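Now for today's protein:

——
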Amino acid sequence: MTSDQTNLSANWNYPTAVQVGAGRVRELAALCQQHGISNPLVVTDKGTAGLPFMIAIMSDFQDAGLGAALFDAVDSNPSVTNVEEGAEAFRTGGHDGVVALGGGSGLDAGKAVALYAGQSRPLRDFEDAGDNWLRVNEAGVAPVIAVPTTAGTGSEVGRASVITFPDTQEKKIIFHPKMLPVAVLSDPELTVGLPAGLTAATGLDAFTHCFEAYCAPGYHPMADGIALEGIRLIKEWLPVAYKQPGHIKARTHMLVAASMGATAFQKGLGAVHALSHPVGAFYGTHHGLANAVFLPYVMLKNRPVIEGSMARLGAFLDLEKPGFDSVFRWVLEFRALFDIPNTADVLGVLEDDIPALAAAAEADPSMGGNPQPLDRDELAGLFRQALAGNFSPA
């Protein structure tokens, strides 16, 4: 583990209070007390629950006189059942707040548990569509403190959770403004044990968040600027974190870049996520890997409307002859550093499933942020291109 931590400790308040720095997980108990949480429910997955730092966290809670309990029945793609069981544990344990800890699964499940524990309607009723968020009983939403252990989803700074509904093979976005954690504790030491493959997949998830947010239509210079700097940080530091898992400086920058990606995609996402969400719901595929596979195909499809954006991005990244072609080549080369495959068969995609996958992608909320409208046939074409590994423009 490297020791260079110069100027990598700070407190931020955008979009929520963030405490970042190595070793700061030991501040978690005090942070709960600061926000009036005396009996937190720690929501995570079984793999994270068994790691040594979890023992230290639960011990710190006990030493601080907090009545914490652990709920670790969270799947890699959190399901409505996980949320319902977590909410029941919250209610029966008399908890007054949630510590959402882990990668995207633990964070999304924890935020959804905090929302759902105080509601009387089914979780599906709070899908991010129209004014469904107004159905939430705000007094029943518990405060959340988020502790990310991967640098990917950026869910720690988001107001939504992606939850799988197995009965319909759908991933739905559950949203309410009060799902935004009251505080985030980003400690890079919690990410150093992440295997290289997961480091790459989660990092490329963060990259895709930044990239799609930057390309999304609409006027949001703040999101654009955050996305551009997030891309630069990932370009510089993901290869270091991948090759040197104990490199604290790289891990810190990647945690920050992941939060930046989720902050930026308030502007919107796009077809990469629209393709990836149903693949995750159908096959249980890792979301970051799916994004990494689909990204170049969507870039090619969107080329006519993102040429100007790619010229600016290429210049910002100091690429030779900035433009779409140079950015596209660089994206392919960057993915290759992490052995990302070019074909969607590795994600489980089957030709026979493409009509259903395309229908789900067309209905996915992320499509609203794509630089251009795409219909079901065009989305099916993207699935087929990715299955064939065909980089010819569609």
About this structure: The mean pLDDT is 94. Strands lie at 10-13, 17-20, 40-43, 69-71, 97-102, 144-148, 160-165, 170-175, 183-186. The domain at 194-388 is CATH 1.20.1090.10 (Dehydroquinate synthase-like, alpha domain). The two ends are 45 Å apart (CA to CA).
